C-alpha cells in the first residue's frame, strides 16, 4: 500500500506494528514469490468468543483478491486510481481488538475509499463471518447513507448466511459499544434475516424479545424482519404469534407483513388461509399488490387449483394491477410442476386462447417447458399458433425450441418452421445449425443440409477452432470424409490452427469409415504438429482396426498405448471386448474384463452387454445370468439391450414364463421397455396363442406412447 511506512511513523504503536508487519509481509512475497509461506493471524483467538464456527471451511485464509484498479475517486479536485486492496491485510486488522481504530486509520490515510463496489468486495472476501459484520458497523458509523445501499446490505446478508451464524454475544455487544458504535434497527434486520435463512427460528424470537437491551423499540419493520425469518425457517406458528403481538406494541401490520404470511401459508398449501389474510389486509386499507397476487398464483398452482390461479390474473386485470414476469413464471412453471406436461399444455393453451394479446414471457416459458419435457409436436403447434397472434420468440427461446424440434419432429416440418422465422429476421445459433445439418445428412437430405451449411458460413458462424471442429465432426458422422478433409484444409488456409480435437475427430471419422491408412496419416500429422496422442486418439484407431478385423494390430496398438503412458479407459476396453465377442473369442473377452477390473477401471453396461449377448446367442443363459448378477452388484442398471438378449434366449429355449417375468421386472429395475423389447415379448406370447397376456402388455405400453406390433385375434 502507498506511503505505508511514512504514515506509520506518525501512528500509535498498535497501528505502527500492524502496518509494518503487513508491509514487510507483502514486500517479502513480492521479492520471494516461490518462498511464500502462510502468515499467522496477528491475534488468531481474538474473535473466537464472538462468533460460532462457520458452516463452511473453517480456518482457511482469505484469498488476496484485488479491486478494480480503474475506479476513479476525487480528492481535492485531483483524480487518482485506487490501488489494489489486500483483503488479507483487512482481515488481519478486523481480527484485532483495536480493529476500529486501525480501520479508521486506513480510511484517513486514504488506503480505503468508500464506494459501494469496494465495500461489497471487502464484505465478500472475508472468511471469518465476524469480520464483515465489524466492517459494516464501521461503515455505518462513518457513512450511514452508504451503509443503507442495497448492494452493500445484500452482500452483508449473503456473507452472514453463507459463513455464519454470528450470534449477539455479550462480548460482541461490548466490543461494538467500546468502539463507539451501536446495533441499529437496520443492522438488526440484516442479522435476523441471516438467522432465518440458516433456520435459527428460536434464536430470532429470543433476540427480538430482548431488543430493549439493544436500545431499540419494536417497530413494524422489525416485526416484518422477524416474521419473515420465522417463515423462512419453517416456524409459521411462531410467526403468527408475533403477528398477533404487533398491536400490543402499537405496531400496525402493513402490506409487507401480510405478503410474508401469505407466502408462508401458500408454501405449505393452505391457500384458503391466504385468501382470508388477503381479505383482512384489504379491510385495513392495504391493497394487494403484484407480489401478493404472484404469491397467490403460485399457491393455487401448488394446490392444483388451476382455475383459481387463472382467476387471480383476471382479478389483477380488473384492479389495474399489471402482472410482471415473475407472475407469469409462477403460473407456467406452477402448472407444469403440478400436473402431467400434456395436461399442463392443454390448460395453458386454453387460457391463452382467450387472450387478445399473448404475453411474450408466457410464450417463451411455455416453449422452454415443452422443450425440456421433449414435446416437439406440441412445441411446433404452439409456435405456429402463437406466431399467428403476433408472437416472436427471442433468440435463446428460438434456438432451444428448434433444437427440440430437430430431435423429435419430422425434419421437413422443422425446416419449414425454421425458414418461416428466419424470414422474420431470427437467426439460429451455430449449435442449432449444426444439429439441423446433422439431422438432414442423417435423413439423406444432403442438398438441404448443404444449403444450411452455406447459410451458416455466409453469416460468419464458422470462425474459430471450435466451430471448425464441429463442422468436421458433422461431416464425419455423415461419412462424408472428403468434405471433412476439405473443411480441414480450409481451416488451415484461414490461419486457424488445428488442435488435438481436430485431429482426433478426423482420425475417428476415418477409422469408422474403414480408411485405416488415412487415419494413420492423420496420426502422423498430429505428431508433426507437436501433439501427443491421448486416450481418444488410441481408442479411435483401435476401433478402426477392429472394424477392419485386424484384431492383432488392435492389441498391438493397445500395448503401444501403454508404452506412450496413456492409460486405457472403459471405452478402449469395451471396443476390444465387443470385437472379440463378434469373432467368437468369448474366453479372451472374459480375460480382458478381468484385466480391466484389475487395472482399476470399472466395467460399464456396455462391457457386460457384449458378453451377455454372446452367451445368450450361444444358449449359455446361466453364464449370462451370472454376469447379470455381477452387473447388478456393481450398481449398474441393465438397459434394453441387456433384457432383449435374455428375453430372446429364454423364448427360443421354450422358457416363455421366465422371459415374461423378466420383462415385467424391467421397470422395477429402472429400465423402461422400448418398442423392440415390447414387441419381442408380445410376438413370443402371440406365437404361443397367449393373446390375452399379449393384449394387456400392448395396451399398457400403447398408453405410454410405445407402438407395439399388431396382435391377431384381439
Mean pLDDT: 84
Question: What radius of gyration results from the CA coordinates?
Answer: 34 Å
Tell me about the biggest sheet?
2 strands, antiparallel
Q: How large is the share of residues in beta strands?
A: under 5%
Number of helices: 39
Protein structure class: mainly alpha
Distance between the termini: 88 Å
Task: Kindly report the oligomeric state of this protein.
Answer: single chain
Strand tally is 2
Low-confidence stretches: 1-83
Helix content: 55-70%
Overall description:
With 714 residues, the chain is an all-alpha fold. It is 66% helix and 1% strand. The chain is built from 39 helices and two strands. It has a two-stranded antiparallel sheet. The radius of gyration is 34 Å and the shape is globular.
Give a quick summary of the entry.
By secondary structure, the chain is mostly helical. Helix content is 66%, strand content 1%. A hairpin with a 2-residue loop joins strand 1 and strand 2.
Keywords:
about 725 residues, mainly alpha, two-stranded antiparallel ribbon, 39 helices, 2 strands, about 65% helix, disordered N terminus
What are the SSEs and their pairings?
Elements: H1 4-8, H2 13-31, E1 72-75, E2 78-81, H3 87-94, H4 99-108, H5 116-124, H6 130-142, H7 144-147, H8 150-163, H9 170-178, H10 185-198, H11 201-208, H12 220-232, H13 236-245, H14 255-267, H15 271-283, H16 290-302, H17 306-318, H18 325-338, H19 341-353, H20 360-372, H21 376-388, H22 395-408, H23 411-422, H24 430-442, H25 446-458, H26 465-477, H27 481-493, H28 500-512, H29 516-528, H30 535-547, H31 551-563, H32 570-582, H33 586-598, H34 605-617, H35 621-633, H36 640-652, H37 656-664, H38 675-687, H39 691-702
Amino acid at each position: 500500500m502507498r506511503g505505508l511506512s511514512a504514515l506509520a511513523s506518525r501512528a500509535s504503536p498498535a497501528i505502527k506494528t500492524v502496518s509494518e508487519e503487513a508491509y514487510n509481509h507483502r514486500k517479502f512475497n513480492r521479492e520471494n514469490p516461490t518462498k511464500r509461506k502462510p502468515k499467522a493471524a496477528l491475534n488468531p483467538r481474538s474473535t473466537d468468543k464472538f462468533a460460532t464456527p462457520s458452516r463452511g471451511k473453517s480456518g482457511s485464509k482469505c484469498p488476496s483478491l484485488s479491486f478494480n484498479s480503474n475506479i476513479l475517486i476525487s480528492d481535492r479536485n485531483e483524480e487518482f486510481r485506487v490501488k489494489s486492496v489486500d483483503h488479507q491485510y483487512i482481515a488481519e486488522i478486523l481480527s484485532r481488538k483495536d480493529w476500529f481504530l486501525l480501520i479508521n486509520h486506513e480510511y484517513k490515510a486514504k488506503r480505503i475509499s468508500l464506494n459501494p463496489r469496494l465495500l461489497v468486495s471487502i464484505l465478500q472476501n472475508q472468511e471469518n463471518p465476524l469480520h464483515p459484520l465489524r466492517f459494516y458497523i464501521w461503515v455505518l458509523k462513518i457513512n450511514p447513507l452508504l451503509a443503507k445501499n442495497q448492494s452493500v446490505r445484500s452482500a452483508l446478508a449473503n456473507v452472514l448466511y453463507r459463513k455464519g451464524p454470528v450470534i449477539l454475544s455479550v462480548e460482541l455487544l461490548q466490543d461494538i459499544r467500546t468502539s463507539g458504535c451501536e446495533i441499529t434497527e437496520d443492522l438488526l434486520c440484516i442479522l435476523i434475516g441471516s438467522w432465518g435463512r440458516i433456520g435459527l427460528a428460536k434464536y430470532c424470537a429470543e433476540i427480538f424479545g430482548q431488543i430493549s437491551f439493544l436500545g431499540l423499540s419494536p417497530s413494524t419493520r422489525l416485526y416484518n424482519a422477524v416474521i419473515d425469518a420465522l417463515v423462512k425457517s419453517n416456524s409459521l406458528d411462531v410467526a403468527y404469534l408475533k403477528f398477533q403481538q404487533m398491536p400490543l406494541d402499537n405496531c400496525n401490520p402493513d402490506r409487507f407483513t401480510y405478503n410474508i404470511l401469505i407466502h408462508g401459508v401458500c408454501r405449505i398449501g393452505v391457500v384458503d388461509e391466504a385468501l382470508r389474510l388477503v381479505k383482512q389486509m384489504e379491510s385495513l386499507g392495504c391493497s394487494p399488490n403484484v407480489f401478493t397476487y404472484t404469491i397467490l398464483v403460485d399457491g393455487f398452482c401448488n394446490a392444483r387449483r388451476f382455475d383459481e390461479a387463472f382467476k387471480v390474473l383476471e382479478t389483477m386485470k380488473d384492479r389495474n394491477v399489471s402482472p410482471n414476469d415473475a407472475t407469469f413464471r409462477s403460473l407456467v412453471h406452477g402448472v407444469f410442476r403440478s400436473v402431467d406436461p400434456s395436461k399442463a399444455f392443454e390448460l395453458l393453451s386454453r387460457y391463452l386462447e382467450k387472450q387478445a394479446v399473448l404475453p411474450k414471457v408466457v410464450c417463451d416459458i411455455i416453449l422452454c417447458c415443452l422443450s425440456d419435457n421433449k414435446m416437439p409436436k406440441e412445441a411446433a403447434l404452439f409456435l405456429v399458433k402463437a406466431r399467428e397472434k403476433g408472437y416472436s420468440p427471442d433468440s435463446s427461446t428460438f434456438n432451444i425450441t428448434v433444437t427440440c424440434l430437430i430431435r423429435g419432429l419430422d425434419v421437413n416440418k422443422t425446416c419449414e418452421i425454421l425458414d418461416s422465422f428466419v424470414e422474420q429476421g431470427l437467426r439460429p445459433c451455430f449449435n442449432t445449425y449444426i444439429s439441423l445439418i446433422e439431422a438432414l445428412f442423417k435423413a439423406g437430405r444432403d442438398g438441404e443440409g448443404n444449403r444450411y451449411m452455406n447459410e451458416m458460413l455466409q453469416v460468419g458462424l464458422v470462425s474459430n477452432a471450435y466451430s471448425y471442429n464441429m463442422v468436421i465432426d458433422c461431416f464425419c458422422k455423415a461419412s462424408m470424409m472428403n468434405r471433412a478433409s476439405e473443411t480441414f484444409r480450409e481451416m488451415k488456409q484461414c490461419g486457424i490452427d488445428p488442435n488435438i480435437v481436430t485431429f482426433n475427430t478426423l482420425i475417428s471419422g476415418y477409422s469408422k469409415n474403414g480408411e485405416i491408412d488415412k487415419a494413420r496419416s492423420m496420426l502422423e500429422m498430429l505428431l508433426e504438429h507437436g501433439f501427443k496422442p491421448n486416450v481418444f486418439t488410441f481408442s479411435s484407431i483401435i476401433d478402426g482396426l477392429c472394424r477392419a478385423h485386424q484384431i492383432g494390430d488392435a492389441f498391438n496398438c493397445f500395448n503401444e498405448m501403454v508404452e506412450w503412458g496413456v492409460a486405457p479407459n472403459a471405452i478402449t476396453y469395451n471396443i476390444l471386448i465387443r470385437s472379440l465377442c463378434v469373432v467368437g473369442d468369448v474366453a479372451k473377452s472374459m480375460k480382458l474384463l478381468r484385466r480391466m477390473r484389475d487395472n482399476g477401471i470399472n466395467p460399464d453396461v456396455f462391457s457386460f452387454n457384449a458378453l451377455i449377448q454372446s452367451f445368450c446367442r450361444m444358449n449359455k443363459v446361466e453364464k449370462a445370468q451370472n454376469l447379470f448378477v455381477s452387473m447388478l452388484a456393481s450398481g449398474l442398471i441393465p438397459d434394453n439391450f441387456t433384457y432383449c438378449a435374455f428375453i430372446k434366449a429364454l423364448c427360443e429355449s421354450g422358457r416363455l414364463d421366465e422371459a415374461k417375468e423378466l420383462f415385467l421386472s424391467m421397470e422395477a429395475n429402472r429400465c423402461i421397455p422400448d418398442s423392440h423389447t415390447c414387441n419381442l415379448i408380445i410376438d413370443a406370447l402371440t406365437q404361443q396363442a397367449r393373446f390375452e397376456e399379449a393384449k394387456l402388455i400392448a395396451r399398457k405400453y400403447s398408453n405410454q406412447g410405445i407402438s407395439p406390433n399388431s396382435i391377431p385375434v384381439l
